[in-house]
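Structure (tokenized):
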């Protein structure tokens, strides 16, 4: 009788354990984030940086369409919230590579833009922005000095803690960076977001926002080289300039 009862208990235990396993294996580890915003990332030939960018933003409520520059002039931007101009879309040795037609189509879409390093700055020159390649100097940095620590830029969708020295480290190692030279700030219609931190008197600014619509992020390193703080900052910058839904 004891053996029968014991056998019954073991059978019951096995059934419960089996059901628990089934439930566990069919349940996702975590819910994927809801996609609320659609971005388009323009690159030229090599989409490596675009793929890394896409992986980061998909984890943060944004879909990202990768678009080769050769198709950018004929693309319909209507359903997209924001346009990212990749760093490899142009090079200073090909200064006329941002043809007027393509640049004008993107500008006339009316969409806010994130302009990444060289290609982004040369695009800015093509549309006659104040902040462009011509006004920048190159250096190597892993961080920047936060100029407006109380800005909502550091509060949503990610809460970023600003160190006491205001130095925000966004890359694991120094990266090439293009920074706007400003002799005597402020500049009309240009928000100086981050300053180079090599000297207290530096007049170079790697991160700017023009006309509340064009953000320049001068660093060349792709998102896979960023610190966790750097990734959070880039996400926040995109949401801030793109006025995206959280």
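Design, position by position:
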């Amino acid at each position: 009788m004891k053996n029968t009862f014991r056998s019954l208990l073991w059978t019951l235990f096995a059934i419960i354990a089996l059901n628990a396993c089934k439930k566990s294996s069919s349940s996702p580890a975590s819910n994927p984030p809801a996609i609320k915003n659609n971005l388009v990332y323009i690159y030229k030939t090599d989409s490596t940086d675009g793929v890394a960018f896409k992986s980061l933003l998909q984890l943060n409520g944004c879909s990202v369409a990768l678009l080769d520059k050769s198709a950018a002039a004929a693309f319909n931007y209507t359903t997209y919230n924001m346009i990212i101009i990749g760093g490899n879309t142009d090079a200073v040795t090909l200064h006329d590579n941002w043809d007027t037609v393509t640049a004008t189509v993107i500008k006339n879409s009316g969409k806010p833009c994130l302009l990444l390093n060289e290609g982004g700055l040369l695009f800015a020159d093509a549309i006659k922005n104040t902040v462009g390649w011509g006004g920048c100097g190159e250096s190597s940095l892993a961080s920047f000095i936060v100029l407006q620590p109380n800005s909502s830029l550091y509060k949503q969708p990610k809460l970023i803690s600003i160190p006491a020295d205001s130095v925000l480290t966004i890359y694991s190692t120094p990266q090439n960076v293009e920074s706007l030279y400003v002799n005597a700030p402020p500049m009309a219609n240009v928000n100086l977001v981050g300053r180079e931190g090599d000297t207290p008197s530096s007049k170079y600014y790697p991160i700017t926002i023009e006309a509340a619509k064009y953000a320049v992020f001068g660093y060349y390193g792709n998102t896979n080289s960023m610190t966790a703080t750097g990734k959070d900052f880039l996400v926040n910058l995109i949401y801030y300039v793109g006025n995206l839904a959280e």
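Reviewer-requested clarification: The helical segments are 2-26, 48-58, 100-108, 117-126, 228-242. The chain has five helices and twelve strands.
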